[in-house]
Design brief:
7-stranded antiparallel beta sheet, globular, alpha+beta, 153 residues
Length: 153
């Protein structure tokens, strides 16, 4: 399905559904999200958030490096995956993946940061580590699907 958020659209798999407010607070606490989705069978979840500022030249790579440093300090069981830069589409997007520990399972976290529609865009897809091979290409497809809504009249 195609999801539109603040003049940006991206493809979200059809088996993901929007989270309700109780689910959002259960998974993300008090974070204010623009959109959040969950895939019930595998307990994979997706958060979409716009920050207040656009990122300048080299901004997405600097920002993903900052996020890596924060997650490295703050995430229990942090193990770095990979970092990449996507340059196709309507904006440059930086991404990183890392393993972290939850109370009852190990997680793969995939974070992408882009500067679109004059704002900083965060995408975070989290899944069980055992489901990583399924969700890595799904995350890649979501990042590659990022587009600005047409402003043609």
């Amino acid at each position: 399905m195609i999801v539109s958020v603040d003049d940006v659209r991206l493809a979200v798999p059809a088996d993901f559904r929007p989270m309700n407010s109780d689910e959002i607070s259960g998974y993300y606490g008090s974070f204010k999200l623009n959109e959040a989705f969950i895939q019930d069978a595998d307990r994979a979840y997706l958060a979409i958030q716009f920050g207040e500022q656009a990122l300048g030249q080299d901004g997405v790579t600097q920002r993903i490096d900052e996020c890596e440093r924060v997650y490295r300090r703050m995430s229990p069981g942090f193990v770095m995956g990979e970092k990449r830069l996507y340059t196709g589409g309507d904006a440059e997007t930086a991404a990183l993946s890392f393993k972290s520990n939850a109370l009852d399972r190990d997680l793969l976290n995939m974070l992408a940061i882009s500067s679109m529609a004059g704002k900083e865009l965060f995408l975070l897809l989290t899944c069980n580590i055992e489901d990583a091979q399924r969700y890595i290409p799904i995350f890649t497809a979501m990042v590659e699907s990022l587009r600005l809504e047409s402003t043609d009249c």
